[in-house]
Amino acid sequence: MVNVWYMDNDTSDQRLEHKRQPPTCMELAELYTKTGVEYFKINADDYENDKELMELRSQRGYNFEDEITCSEKCLPDYANKLKSFYAEHLHTDEEIRLVLEGSGYFDVRDSEENWLRIQVVKGDLIIIPAGIYHRFTLDTNNYIKARRYFVGEPVWTPHNRPADDMDCRKAYLERLVQLSA
Ligand SMILES: CSCCC(=O)/C(O)=C/O
Ligand SMILES: [Fe+2]
Known about the structure:
Keywords: Amino-acid biosynthesis, Cytoplasm, Dioxygenase, Iron, Metal-binding, Methionine biosynthesis, Nickel, Nucleus, Oxidoreductase. This protein is α+β, with helices and mostly antiparallel strands. 22% of the residues lie in helices and 32% in strands.
């Protein structure tokens, strides 16, 4: 099961857990109503035949997919890429990632500007909504391999905060009001 917790304010190494003391964890149902982030468990060893993934792909129209490996060896321009992943940003489209190997953290803002840290490991499929401020970091294992899904021609562009005037941001905030009602 995926683990989610509120982060502390410590600015040391981003790859550490950064749990508050005492830890404040969150259930997936609450993560959804508070942020719109969705989570699915997939059989990463046979993802092409995973029923849940097949359904997601057809229901949501994911017609593009590729793979990204984040490690010093495999990711071109590694240091700069990791820096840009960890800068607070949003996208005009959902960010859909299925972890095949390794692990990492997706951090998302809740409506009160707190950081929620979502630990992802093999078999975790996470959908980060368009318009939510978020960031990604490797953990101390320094390795993750993930599949990326997209509807249509992929747009990976991160829009760094502040991006409050963007339509996708406004739409996200409106959706959040409905989700938490
Ligand atoms: C594990 S995928 C790497 C992170 C990424 O693709 C992204 O867009 C972060 O916001
Ligand atoms: Fe992103």
